[in-house]
Every structure is written in C-alpha cells, then in structure tokens.
Amino acid sequence: MELRQLRYFVAIVDHGSLSRAARVLHIAQPALTQQIHQLEEEMDAQLLHRSAQGVIATDAGKTFYEHAQAILKQVQDAKSAVAQSTDKPSGTVALGIPQSVSNALALPLLTAVRSTYPEITLQLTEELTGNLITQLKSGRINLAVLFDDGQLSPFASTPMIEEEMMYITCAKSRFGVSGRKPVSLAKAIEAPLILPGLQHGVRPRIENIVRAQGMTLENVIEINSVAILKSAILADIGATILPVAPLLSDIERGDMVAHAIGGERITRTLALCASKNIPLTIAAAAVEKLVLDVTDDLCRKGRWQHTQLLKRE
C-alpha cells in the first residue's frame, strides 16, 4: 500500500467521480483506476461502488476512508513539524469543538489565530462529543474540546472551565416559571425536555444527576442539532437544560429565558485534549496554548457567561 493510493482513494470519495478526481490529481483516469484496483486487491475488499451517477464508498470503503484521512493527516503533520520553526509556526491545525461550545469559542479563537499566527490554517470541526473522541484517537484532528466525564485518561487533557447548565424556555412559555428565580430540578424535569442524544456530552451528565436524586427523565425529545433545538424551544414544544452559550443570542433578545437550577447545580467541565500517542506539531502546540488563553480571556471578561476557570498545573 502506498501513500499515493490513499490520496487517490480519498480524492475519489471526496469528488464522487473518477474523472473529476483524475483532473484534480493530474493523473490519467485509466492509471487512477488501476491504482484503486490494486488497493482493493490488497485490502481484499470492494472499497468503491461505481454507477452511472458517480462513485460512492462501500461500507468497507467508508471505514477505510476514515483511516486513510487520519494517515494522510499524520504524514502532513510530520512534514510540517520538520519544516516549521518555533518562532514562526505554520501549517494546518484541526480542532474539534462540540456544538454547544462553538457559539462561545469558535469566532474569538479564529480571530486570535489569524492575528497571532497568520501562517497557521485553523480547521474547526463542529461535532458531537462521541465523534470528536473517535477523530482524536485516530489522528484526524490534532486537538478537541471535550467534556470531562472522568474518562479522558486516553488523552493528554488540560482543564479549561466549569460551565453551569440552566433551565431554558421560550419567553412566556407554558413551561416557564415566574420571575427570574431559580427552578428546582424536580420542577425542571416535569416539562418535556429537549435534549441532545446520549452520545452528546451534556446528556449523560444530566441523566446521572437526575438519577442520583432518585428521579428519572420521563419525557425527553432528542435533538442533536443546535439549530433545530432552538426552533423547538421557540415553538414551545418543550424546555431544555443546557449551558447558555449556544442560546445566548436568543436569551439576550428576550426570545428565551434562562433560570438557574436550585439545589443540585448541574455543571459540566470542559477540557482541551490531545492524543498521548501522536505528538503535537509546533503549530498545534501554539494553537493549544491560544485556546486556553482565549478561554481565560472570555471568562474573565464575562463574555462566556456562567463559567468558572479551573486550576491548571
């Protein structure tokens, strides 16, 4: 198996066409087809399904595509690590951020990277926590912001913040409470709760706290998209328990109302994680430090609301 075969395969899947991939790769289509045939023979599996509509990956091909991307990313990182200098880091750094964090962190971080390290290309990936863990383990991304649920031992992790979760409804909701007073956890879970699925870092945390109080979540509407979750809350289909960051603009406009949860506070801890097995490039290490600096600045200035900075070694 050769690296060029991996590049060819990834290009075909990305473009959905042998002819388009051949043009991008500057290789004759028959030669490209021959290389893919050799790759499939070595893998002893059909990786691509060809039809009049184009080319798509088979189930085996989808699995191989994930590994091929990770291998190519690590090769590129190795080249960058050798070529770049410590005083002027350059190259591509891939950072994964959960959907519920990106609204607070993504834009300030992009701005900071562009102004501080103009020769670094930051690739931001917004994903569910479970997907980020898989990508970080495989090397497809260099860094990831993850929820510290006590199971981050496979990674090199640095504490970032503790973030409080609130009971959030639309304004004048039938599930709302009067005034701005805190709502009890028992009261909060009486409403239909619009929550992410269990593969999302927020949901297991809520489930565990509710269970520890001798209660259960009886009426949950699972929505993994922040945009759809917002629409459902505004339509008063239910309430949610989330950090305010992904819904802050709606809260500040008065379209939604956030209440602290009294008694048993529900918080989540965020950590910045990297692989223990794959060394960071100079550029990735620079971005790692910048993520922590930007987070500290956002919290101290009150721009990342209802958060508390955590001690670091």
TrEMBL record:
Protein name as annotated: LysR substrate-binding domain-containing protein
Family the UniProt entry places it in: Belongs to the LysR transcriptional regulatory family.
Keyword hit for Transcription regulation: yes
InterPro entries membership: LysR_HTH_N, LysR_subst-bd, WH-like_DNA-bd_sf, WH_DNA-bd_sf
Pfam families: HTH_1, LysR_substrate
Keywords carried by this UniProt record: Activator, DNA-binding, Transcription, Transcription regulation
Domain HTH lysR-type: 1-58
Organism: Herbaspirillum lusitanum
SUPFAM superfamilies (alphabetical): Periplasmic binding protein-like II, Winged helix' DNA-binding domain
Family annotation (PANTHER family): NITROGEN ASSIMILATION REGULATORY PROTEIN NAC, TRANSCRIPTIONAL REGULATORY PROTEIN NAC-RELATED
Lineage summary: Bacteria, Pseudomonadati, Pseudomonadota, Betaproteobacteria, Burkholderiales
